[in-house]
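quick one, two chains, predict together pls
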Amino acid sequence: MLLIFLGLAGARLLGYRFFSEDPRFTIWLNRVDRVPYWSRVIAFLVAVGALDYFQGDEYFTSVMVSVATYAMLGLGLNIVVGFAGLLDLGYAAFFAIGAYTSALLMTEAHWNFFATIPFAILFTGTAGAILGYPTLRLRSDYLAIVTLGFGEMTRVTITNWDYAGGPNGILRIPFPEAFGYVFQTQFDFLLVGLGLLAIAMIFAQHLEHSRLGRGWIAIREDEFAAESVGVPSLRLKLLAYVMGGMWGGLAGGFFATRIGAIDPTSFTFSLSVLALIVIVLAQLADDGAWLRTFAANNLSQRQSLRLAGRLDGAPQFGLLALAPFAYFTSGGSVRHIELSSGMLETMTELGQGATVVAVVNR
Amino acid sequence: MGAFLQYTVIGLTVGSFYALVALGYTIVYGIIRLINFAQGDLSMIGAFLGWTLLVGYGVQFLPLFPALVIAFVVPMLGTAVVNLAILEVAYKPLLNRSLLAILISALGMSLVLSNGAEWKWGPAIEAYPPSLLPSTGMFLGPVHVTYVQIALVTVSLLLMGGLVAFVQGTTLGTAMRALAVDHDAARLMGINVNQVIRLAFVLGAMLAAASGVMLGLYYVQIQFTLGFLLGLRAFTAAVLGGIGNIPGAMAGGLLIGLLESYTTGYISGKWEDVIVFGVLITVLIIKPTGLFGERVAVRM
């Protein structure tokens, strides 16, 4: 599966490198691109689901569910960091707020999971506005520490808040139900996850090409210039946090119902870093957002899967984390990287795996 | 009143550790606009190097003064080397790219360091020899101050004073200050920018190592995870005081130490993080450049 993703991304990249002058290629590419985005997403996710159904075992499916969760996280963070260029090191906070909102509504008020989703999103969006407001005047580096601070503050608050379960968290969160059917196997979760992911991806893509998205990109490139042509940068920055947070909330709600019990240790700074890794890796594919985030997550999860059997060797991979990173984080455009795509893939795997493993095996 | 003074003493002690690490953050940031997330972990590495010397190589059995000198100096040199390596490998190639790139690189480096430490020294909590330093103290009025506290704070103040003297008094120090203003102008004046950047990293590493060893001596217990929280608090301190601003970092460090101490004493240890960050955010809302104002390079 990994190879398929990388193959697709790699093929497209290689295509760019070798064929961009050939008009026949660009015509073909235009025809491919003209297929509406949502149908590509649905087709892709259906293919993923089908592949998993026929090929995968329970463990693999659960990994894919995690992939879907991280993909949602990455999509959300991509709005804040990728579109608007706002450094956010506390994204785990949104994940936590979404998860706890959903969990509390399900356990205390006995709501259906799907009913809690809009509220989880709403609360997280509001939290985004509250968290984003003090940061509006700050420069990017201060932003980093403040968002990190918010992430930590949220974690500490939920650890100390007894209504939310304190350090033990919330237990016995019910499974999602729809029209009498209870989603309880891993594959069921995958269905729900992929469904939510489809909505998330399509929405994100439309956001990117909307007026709002273009405003964000303008702010990212040069805030003063954007202001001078009438882009209301403060309002848009706030909106970036709000909307970016919403995806985190969605992922959080899904996470809560899927795991069944949540506690504060799932929402640490490492998770925020993981989300950042996801979007950084996603830039590698530099394709549509669909391949991007999904591939990035897939890599991350695949590595945990593959290296789980060699836990004691894990930290040494941590040491290898950096070298690939230094190259890959260089501005995001793959065209600037002069490695062959084979080496790219290997180093990506190592680097991503290393970092993820290092983080995950604390 | 006695409790307040006691908390103050503790806060100042811990604050001076934070101040040292914060200085490392602030110097590096002032020159190249990079948040060296690895700074906290450098402190941890310094602590572990000191521990290896004292416990592993038996340096603790030497007479006290040479033992301490070795326990400080060798980790300082060791972490300086580590930091230089980090600079060359992880930061140099990215200096002219986007801020996000170098930030993630720094985060990655922090992970590498802490996991590397876990790999090398194991995940267990290790202890500095507890009988190495006397645990006696004296009473200054209602407050009990241990000699260790006095000694450590004195050493910290000496190091900070040394740094300030260096930055203000020597040519190299002036070169660093020049870099914190404008890189190209510095080049025009004949300053070897790369050398000075390396110098800044070395200094930051040495301060971090010193604070790490001091943490080990003060708290006795060290673990590979201590870098993260220390780095976070120290960076908060640096930002609070105004990033790039040396006196600001020192003041910020002491302030954060005091805040922590008062919070733990009067409210509860659980809410430390919230209060510390709350204060930071409030200060930044009111004065976005920090308490003493920032001093950052105009261009890289």
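Chain B has a mean pLDDT of 85.
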